[in-house]
Structure to design on (493 residues):
């Protein structure tokens, strides 16, 4: 029995990094900039074994813990496989540092609390929204906003140290690139890996 | 420091660029002055054109724009970086220390080799430290090797061991293409590299290399060599009194020997050579620069 769980953690108040990114993208991209920028931590947990319904048990346990979020500052949602910020003109840039290791401390804590063998990874999701009239351009605009290739283009991902996937109008579970441990990459993931550090 | 003429002409003017969140500009300015240079602070709210026309530029350390998005990423998009890129393409020296180094890398000035009017491609990253048994921000004294052949190491002996303090969370030079940093080192673009702290020889992982940087790179230049992104802080080791008394090696011995000697303890520290090298490159005579230091 194996299960992927996604925990979405965002600030209750305005996220300062998101507001700064929004202002910087306005300066960089002008009318092509997103009208709204959000940011969240995305925790992806993989549970193997245990007593079943890992997501339900994790959610119950999470209410009494501050291991993944600060309840005075953040709000957390266990995603049920649906896009956390829905909308046809919304893109999610899901990014993780290349070669980032699993969080062993989080995994051990969950194993002790809930049973089973856990893997825990953390990445970042940038949520970019454009006006409905730009619907056809969203995929291209999201790529433009995402990849910091030159000084005058892109901001959110430096492909030299980060992997990222750009999702438009869809969501995935797992969403963080390269979900398998190093050395165990699935062949379909390898096939999907783009030529410039992105995972398409 | 009087700002008096040096060998018959005004001191070279070095702009110290101040962006919101930087916090090392004053000690950087003092280190420049101690090498016989004139430090000119330029604040973020001055027009970008105020930057142009200086003899050299320094982006000091700190946390520009609170390290939002990525360290240096927001500052790299500042219009002032266009001016710096233009000046760098003309061969004007540009030094980025710690956060300044992160800005230069995110702006594509290091290891970029853009010609005037063109943009450098972002071809490196300063990624999160990879440490043994811990992660995140780390502060310690490390030992660098100053490699010959760079304008930035001219005041040091060949492969001189230089202890400097480092303090950062994102200082790991890395690139997507394997072997990039090794290639840059082979081409002379890594004038400062981490080496073993205890004895001579290369770094043997952490803590010699405090962040997991590829090729043990502590400082990387552009192809022309006039733009340096340096992670440790030479300005925090500009004077001998900056050196901790318990530091091993010759600089520690020098510091211990100067205990109670007010004049000697004010003398040059191991980081002074970076600023002295810049001063020599800008035409300040070695004798005058040493007297200033």
């Amino acid at each position: 029995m194996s299960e992927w769980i996604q925990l979405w953690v965002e600030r209750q108040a305005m996220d300062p990094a998101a507001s700064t990114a929004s202002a910087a993208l306005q300066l960089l991209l002008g009318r092509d900039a997103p009208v709204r920028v959000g940011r969240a931590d995305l925790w992806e947990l993989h549970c193997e074994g245990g007593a079943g319904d890992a997501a339900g048990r994790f959610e119950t346990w999470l209410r009494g813990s501050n291991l993944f979020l600060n309840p005075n500052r953040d709000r957390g949602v266990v995603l049920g496989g649906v896009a956390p910020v829905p909308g046809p003109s919304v893109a999610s840039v899901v990014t993780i540092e290349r070669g980032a290791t699993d969080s062993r401390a989080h995994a051990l804590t969950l194993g002790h609390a809930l049973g089973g063998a856990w893997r825990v990874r953390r990445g970042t999701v940038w949520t970019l929204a454009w006006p409905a009239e730009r619907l056809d351009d969203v995929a291209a605009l999201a790529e433009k906003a995402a990849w910091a290739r030159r000084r005058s283009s892109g901001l959110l991902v430096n492909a030299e140290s980060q992997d990222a996937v750009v999702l438009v109008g869809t969501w995935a579970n797992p969403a963080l690139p390269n979900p398998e441990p190093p050395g165990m990459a699935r062949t379909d993931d390898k096939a999907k890996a783009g030529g410039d550090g992105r995972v398409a | 420091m009087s700002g008096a003429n040096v060998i018959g002409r005004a001191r070279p003017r070095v702009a110290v660029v101040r962006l919101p969140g930087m916090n090392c500009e004053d000690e950087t300015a003092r280190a420049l002055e101690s090498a016989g240079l004139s430090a000119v602070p330029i604040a973020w709210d001055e027009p970008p054109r105020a930057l142009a026309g200086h003899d050299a530029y320094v982006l000091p350390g700190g946390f520009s724009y609170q390290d939002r998005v990525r360290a240096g990423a927001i500052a790299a998009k500042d219009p002032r970086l266009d001016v710096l890129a233009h000046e760098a393409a003309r061969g004007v020296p540009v030094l980025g220390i710690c956060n300044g180094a992160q800005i230069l890398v995110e702006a594509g000035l290091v290891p970029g080799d853009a010609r005037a009017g063109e943009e450098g491609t972002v071809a490196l990253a300063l990624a999160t430290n990879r440490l043994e048994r811990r992660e995140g921000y780390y502060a310690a004294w490390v030992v660098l090797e100053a490699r010959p052949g760079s304008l930035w190491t001219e005041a040091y002996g060949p492969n001189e061991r230089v202890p400097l303090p480092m303090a950062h969370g994102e200082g790991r030079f890395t690139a997507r293409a394997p072997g990039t940093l090794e290639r840059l080192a082979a081409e002379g673009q890594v004038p400062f590299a981490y080496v073993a702290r205890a004895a001579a020889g290369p770094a043997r992982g952490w803590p010699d290399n405090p962040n997991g940087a590829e090729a043990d790179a502590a400082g990387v230049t552009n192809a022309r060599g006039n733009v340096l992104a340096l992670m440790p802080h030479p300005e925090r080791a500009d004077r001998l009194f900056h050196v901790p008394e318990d530091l091993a090696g010759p600089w520690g011995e020098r510091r211990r020997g100067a205990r109670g000697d007010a004049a000697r303890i004010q003398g040059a520290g191991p980081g002074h050579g970076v600023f002295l090298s810049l001063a020599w490159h800008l035409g300040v005579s070695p004798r005058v620069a040493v007297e200033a230091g």
